[in-house]
Amino acid sequence: MKSFILISIMFCFVIATAVNASQAPLSIENTTFYTESYPPANYIENGKIKGLSVDTLKAMWKHLNMAEQEIFVVPWARGYRFTLDNPNTVLFTMSRTPSRDKLFKWVGPIFNSTHVLIAKKSKGFKFEHLGQTFDYSVATVTGDISEISLQQVGFPTENMANISTLEQAYLMTKADRVDMFVISMHGFNHLSSQLNIDQNDFEVVWEINTIGNYFAFNINTPDEIIQSYQNAFDQIKKQRLKIKSDYE
Questions:
Q1: pTM for the whole thing?
Q2: 206 and 94 in one domain?
Q3: Residue 145 lies in a domain
Q4: What is the 3-state secondary structure (H, E, C) of the chain?
Q5: How many Cα atoms are found within 13 Å in the side-chain-facing hemisphere of 18?
Q6: Does the record's keyword annotation contain tRNA processing (predicted)?
Q7: 91-149: per-residue pLDDT in tens?
Q8: Does residue 136 fall inside a structural domain?
Q9: Which residues sit opposite 104 in a β-bridge?
Q10: Burial level of 67, CB count in 10 A (0-12/13-18/19+)?
């Protein structure tokens, strides 16, 4: 009889474990999400947050049978600091670089970004090697991966004009206050759509790098939460492709 009871208990435990494996861990809903305004990944339109990464996250929540969580839109540097220092926090969309790799736990990649230097065609820039760009001024978004990418290739900091938004970077370039601005190709295409920019007036003068973009979780996040999100991410592949096509 005791053996039968023990077997029954073990059977129920296995069934419960199998059921829970497809659901979110109980603590998963205590996570705080931060993002910045950086289209087309994440941005505010008509008072609502949207974007490629935002829609992907919402699809993951739905797959996990979770209610949508609140997403806080903050300056990048603040969101980075909050996520680095506080448990149960996530920042997106973050490029996964070697220097950041061991500072966070990662879910993705959501998409890849190619970062480029863009100038007005009227400038007539023709660079044969990276070092030739160092003599010109570039508008960069403070703390953004595009700025970090420039720093990593040795671009002189004295020639970098640090601003807070992509729109400011574009306007400074348009007004000839700087020679170029740095941005991802995704970002430039979306910015062009939002501001009615004639792309024929601008050109890519140098390609800096291509980097994968992820949801970055605080390093102390339990591995089962990371695995739940990564499993959800992997299992909604068809939805992710549809979301990418909607924004690209």
A1: 0.71
A2: no
A3: yes
A4: CHHHHHHHHHHHHHHHHHHHHCCCCHHHHHCEEEECCECCCEEEECCEEECHHHHHHHHHHHHCCCCCCCEEECCHHHHHHHHHHCCCEEEEEEECCCCCCCCEEEEEEEEEEEEEEEEEHHHCCCCCCHHHHHHCCEEEECCCHHHHHHHHCCCCHHHEEEECCHHHHHHHHHCCCCCEEEEEHHHHHHHHHHHCCCHHHEEEEEEEEEEEEEEEEECCCCHHHHHHHHHHHHHCHHHHHHHHHHHC
A5: 6
A6: no
A7: 999 999 888 999 999 999 999 989 999 999 999 999 999 999 999 999 999 888 889 99
A8: yes
A9: 218
A10: exposed
**Which residue reads 């949508």 in tokens?**
68
Tell me the per-residue pLDDT of 51-88, one tens digit each, with 9 for 90 and over: 999 999 999 999 999 999 999 999 988 999 999 999 99
Q: Do residues 118 and 200 make contact, with C-beta atoms less than 8 angstroms apart?
A: no
Angle at 57 between CA 52 and CA 63, to 5 degrees: 130
Are 89 and 75 part of one and the same domain? yes
Is position 143 within any domain?
Answer: yes
Nearest one of 117, 111, 119, 161 to 137, comparing CA atoms: 161
Q: Tokens 């680095």 sit at which residue? A: 84
Q: Residue 136 is which amino acid? A: Y
142 lies in the same domain as 190: yes
Same domain, 104 and 186: no
Same domain, 70 and 179: no
Residues 216, 107: one domain? yes
